[in-house]
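Entry:
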Amino acid sequence: MIVIVDYDAGNIGSVANICKKAGGKAEISADPERIAAAAKLILPGVGHFGRAMERLNASGIRAALDAAHTRGAPILGICLGMQLLLSHSEEGDAAGLGWIAGEVRRFVLPAPLKVPHMGWNDLHFTRPDVLTQGLEDEARFYFVHSYYAEATDRADVLARTDYGGEFDSVVRRGNVWGIQCHPEKSHKYGLTFIRNFIEKVPGL
């Protein structure tokens, strides 16, 4: 069973729907005990980094996530959920979960490019991984974000995307993955990515 972490940060239902479409069983939970014991976890999210971390810390979910991470449960962060995996964000000048060393920065772009980065864009894969199997290079995914992740260790980067310069769009360290775009809005490519998480990554 996959637990989708509910911390009032949006797009929970659509993530549950794509898990079901991909053939997986997922439940939505805000219960720290259930989260800590989950076989696999998805940390979705849209919104403000600093406020999201405040909710995770205040609710007890942060401690539950740390417990799950420590025992090696596979964890997938989506959009804001990916950014929360990193050390720190300029958005709210807030510390993240710190499982992947790196910084979250706001886009500073030349005209006519606009912030947020919104719409379809390509993933350029930097190394193979179980979650990207079956996705040809330059698979197109749907993005909506004003901040981007920059991992410190380039070995943690699985894919990059170009929007006024390249940024890290898929990352992994150990049992933790993050994807900046929205698989649940990315049709066949997103379905393949989520199915890989369901079928190819063993849960604990």
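Residues 76 and 177 are 5 Å apart (CA to CA).
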